[in-house]
């Protein structure tokens, strides 16, 4: 396992989702869908850099709560530059991101 935060977060997420799938294989389609949505949360800011709405994730949203439930999911977002927001709502906001990290998104 690598020492960088993104690799550690992805590894944690992969192991937690694998364990959950082994225990409850009937949930595999939902897990695959949620992983796709997590990837979209990461891709949107790179694909639409001038759209502020793609730089904020409202944590009270039920779908977001489900997507971020597995251990490591939130850490993946944080390793890619999302930080706790400054607004009254509980949010993650994408701060300034360097070009190599944008390439990962």
Automatic annotation (TrEMBL):
Q: Where is the PUB domain?
A: 38-100
Write down the Gene3D superfamilies for this protein, in alphabetical order. 1.20.58.2190
Which SMART domains would you find in this protein's record? Answer: PUG
Which Pfam families does UniProt cross-reference here?
PUB
What are its GO cellular component terms? cytoplasm
Show the InterPro entries listed in the entry: PUB-like_dom_sf, PUB_domain
Q: Return the protein name.
A: PUB domain-containing protein
Q: Which organism is it from?
A: Coccolithus braarudii
């Amino acid at each position: 396992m690598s020492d960088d935060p993104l690799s550690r977060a992805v590894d944690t997420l992969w192991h937690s989702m694998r364990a959950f799938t082994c225990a409850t294989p009937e949930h595999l389609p939902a897990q695959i869908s949620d992983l796709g949505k997590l990837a979209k949360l990461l891709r949107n800011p790179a694909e639409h850099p001038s759209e502020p709405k793609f730089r904020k994730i409202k944590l009270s949203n039920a779908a977001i709560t489900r997507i971020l439930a597995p251990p490591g999911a939130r850490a993946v977002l944080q390793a890619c530059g999302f930080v706790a927001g400054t607004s009254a709502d509980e949010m993650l906001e994408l701060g300034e991101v360097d070009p190599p990290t944008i390439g990962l998104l």
